[in-house]
Amino acid sequence: MAVSIRLSRGGAKKRPYYKIVVANATAPRDGKYLEQIGTYNPLLAKDDENRVKINGERASYWLSVGAQPTDRVARMFDKAGIKERKATNNPQKGEPGDKAKERAEEKAEKAREAAEAAAAASAAPAEEAPAAEATEESTEA
């Protein structure tokens, strides 16, 4: 039987309150659990000591018998000094998606074509307009 340490949601709509529980991995999120080892109130300020309360002894016991914490709970344990969590690295985090890359390529191509057209227009010899010649003839007569 796999055991996990995870959050169980309580509270009203748009007013969440979580219990940190040890539960069977197949049990529903807010269903039956083996033991409650702490609480988490995300509505409190980050520096408030009541935001996260963890019973360190029970958390250490469950970790020692093989319970696996979820990522969010592992972060809380790391901050409380119960279990050190190795930092994760996602090199693709800031990279745009495929569609955004395609749009950027299209935009760059349009800009390049516009620059080429402007360069071609400025490089072409300036011809005198026939309308200018007609006005000169009418002023001479």
- Gyration radius (Cα, Å) is 34 Å
Amount of helix? 25-40%
Query: Largest sheet at a glance?
Result: 5 strands, mixed
Strand order of the largest sheet: 4-3-2-1-5
Structural class, from helix and strand content?
alpha+beta
The number of strands is 5
Keywords: Ribonucleoprotein, Ribosomal protein
InterPro entries: Ribosomal_bS16, Ribosomal_bS16_CS, Ribosomal_bS16_dom_sf
Family: Belongs to the bacterial ribosomal protein bS16 family.
Protein name: Small ribosomal subunit protein bS16
Overview of this protein structure:
Belongs to the bacterial ribosomal protein bS16 family. It holds the Pfam family Ribosomal_S16. Keywords: Ribonucleoprotein, Ribosomal protein. By secondary structure, the chain is of the alpha+beta class. It has a five-stranded mixed β-sheet with strand order 4-3-2-1-5. The longest helix has 26 residues, at 98-123. The protein is 40% helix and 22% strand. It has helices spanning 56-64, 71-80, 98-123, 130-140, and strands at residues 3-12, 15-24, 35-40, 52-54, 68-69. Strand 1 and strand 2 form a beta hairpin. The protein has four helices and five strands.
